[in-house]
């Protein structure tokens, strides 16, 4: 492998209606000595790892003039490789079923594992205790990494395993196979949880899949008959090369992207989960937004693209072409609505153990209403307890040690409409400064009402139900969700997070009720509504306990709402997935989405938290114990 040239030629700038600008310049051209099997970045650094068909591992530091380190394995050719989340291990495999576990830093061989068939996919759990191998016969094996001992086995119907992924809490394993399915396996019950068929086309193919805590991106080929008037009689096939984006937990399709002109060879989801990158035989790499499914940029290359990856901070995109060349592009994202700073990835450097705003303060308004003034509003068991627990965590010296004068706690009769508006629109507006962090928490009922003005996109007005609200006069007596946008604008802080442990669907039970002015329960409260209430500019975030038309559950065994129970768990350290004493929004949401949905599913319900908006840097810095 050798460095051919270092170029800094500006190539392209692309702008969308969504105000996303993507620019790129060619940074390095690297000539390889063998065809790359896989290219990837180490999780917390700017080192590019290349495994090749000659059985070599090359580590290239893009910040040190392409300095290279080579590890020679015992493989004649590598068919799969993976790096552990803590950068401790690199695991490689070959077509004979030989698997080697090595120390990534030293290259020293730690252990060997033998499979019966060609190994085509690998994954390591986030705690680095388990290894998953997938082979050419559709068999998945789970191994104890320390003792190289098999502990579990799963099976696709036929064909090779394309991709494997452990969820951050290691409760589930996801797999994608040549049988065109994506499957979710429960590692506790040791049973299949869900199966999705990505293409029903007889001649279609599932080509590649990338997993993340929130999204699944797959590259597929669809083959359908041409139904146009000229070709319908002949039934001429039409080939489509599609990137699909799904929600990881629910499996629901979020977007279908059909622009490539030839088969897709590789898909990759960025570390902060904002972008999907696809590579194709059509000589292009395309960058898509997971936020809205929009195409952000197309990068043309001279040869077919076989592999693509992004650095953890989104600074570099690396594409491998079939002429054994790596093209390294430096990216620049600018967007007033989405965090895109290459210096502030949502997974910060492992070495960065300092809070992002060490000279700033936390201000909060905490609201919890279990009992209401109106006797027609059903009481909630734990909303007040939820609010008190959040307050206690923030003020406790072992929590965040926030001065009590920085927090307004409003529970039951104190949570009147006047007090809520004063606390949100006056207290926070006067006290919180630009670099401070503002937390707003609400546990209680949410309520929908028919929008007679026609201004809402779904025909429904939504309200936070204050203590003194009249359920038959919500417009006059309750706090409208549309007011959140104005509250956000009044607060000076660049970092404001609103947690809503309530729902607005009108579904039976949970933290919602129907007003007498709403005649139908068949509501469709869209994500668009929440997007519209996060004002332009980064720094405003809403995290809701549930999706549209879902309940927000309380559990007696927890003594809390399910969402708040896991929110407290997350803030106390469980969401620190990389254990660097900082919790990012990405880590927080990843933890909440998996734990809440899994627990509610266990009791026969459905509840999936949503997050809208973002800001740069860390969210919470954990106190050292």
Give a verbal description of the structure.
With 625 residues, the protein is mainly beta. The protein has three domains: 156 residues, Lipocalin (Beta Barrel); 125 residues, Methylamine Dehydrogenase, Chain H; 190 residues, Rossmann fold (3-Layer(aba) Sandwich). 12% of the residues lie in helices and 42% in strands. The strands form eleven sheets. The protein has a six-stranded mixed beta sheet, with helices on both faces. A hairpin with a 4-residue loop joins strand 13 and strand 14. Helix 1 runs parallel beside helix 6. It is elongated. The protein starts with a strand and ends with a strand. The N terminus is likely disordered.
SSE arrangement:
Elements: E1 2-15, E2 20-31, E3 36-41, E4 47-52, E5 56-61, E6 67-72, E7 80-83, E8 89-93, E9 98-103, E10 109-114, E11 119-124, E12 130-135, E13 139-144, E14 149-155, E15 161-166, E16 172-177, E17 181-186, E18 191-197, E19 205-211, E20 215-225, E21 237-247, E22 253-260, E23 264-269, E24 275-280, E25 284-289, E26 295-300, E27 305-310, E28 316-321, E29 325-335, E30 362-368, H1 383-395, E31 407-411, H2 417-431, E32 437-443, E33 446-450, E34 460-464, H3 474-477, E35 479-480, H4 483-490, E36 495-501, H5 527-532, E37 540-544, E38 554-555, E39 560-561, H6 562-574, E40 582-583, H7 585-602, E41 610-614, E42 620-621
Parallel strand pairs: 30-31, 30-32, 32-36, 36-37
Antiparallel strand pairs: 1-2, 2-29, 3-4, 4-5, 5-6, 7-8, 8-9, 9-10, 11-12, 12-13, 13-14, 15-16, 16-17, 17-18, 19-20, 20-21, 21-22, 23-24, 24-25, 25-26, 27-28, 28-29, 33-34, 34-35, 37-41, 38-39, 40-42
